[in-house]
Amino acid sequence: MSENTSESGSSERRVGPTVSRDKWLLHARQKLARGYVLILAKGDKRRANFYLPEKGYEMCAYDVARALVSSGEVVPTGEHPLGTRYELPSAKA
């Protein structure tokens, strides 16, 4: 019986789903195209979120958010209590 217990204990360990960076970039671009803004935390905090007033906040992978900013796909449009707000250049107009 102890073998089953140890096996079930190890099978309960969960690992988060792995999503490729390309899929994250595609997901982020789709969110931004639907009107979401990207909020990137300032300082040492490695946190990024999508925000839409009607729907609230959703998590964004920090490395993907940084890639969008460094590539110029999103531009800063102001400050937010959680950090700097970024949007697609066409949404800024």
Low-confidence stretches: none
SSE order in H/E notation? HHEEEHEEH
- Taking all residues together, what is the mean pLDDT? 84
Q: Report the biggest beta sheet as strand number plus sense, adding barrel if it closes.
A: 5 strands, antiparallel
> Mind telling me the C-alpha Rg?
18 Å
Q: Tell me, what's the shape? A: globular
Overall domain count: 1
Number of strands: 5
Overview of this protein structure:
This protein has 93 residues and is α+β, with helices and mostly antiparallel strands. The chain has one domain (20-92). Helix content is 40%, strand content 27%. It has helices at 2-11, 21-33, 62-71, 89-92, and strands at 37-40, 48-52, 56-60, 75-80, 83-87. A five-stranded antiparallel beta sheet has the order 3-2-1-5-4. Strand 2 and strand 3 form a beta hairpin. The protein is globular and about 45 Å long.
Write the layout of secondary structure elements.
Elements lengths: L1 H10 L9 H13 L3 E4 L7 E5 L3 E5 L1 H10 L3 E6 L2 E5 L1 H4 L1
Antiparallel strand pairs: 1-2, 1-5, 2-3, 4-5
Brief overview:
With 93 residues, the chain is of the alpha+beta class. 40% of the residues lie in helices and 27% in strands.
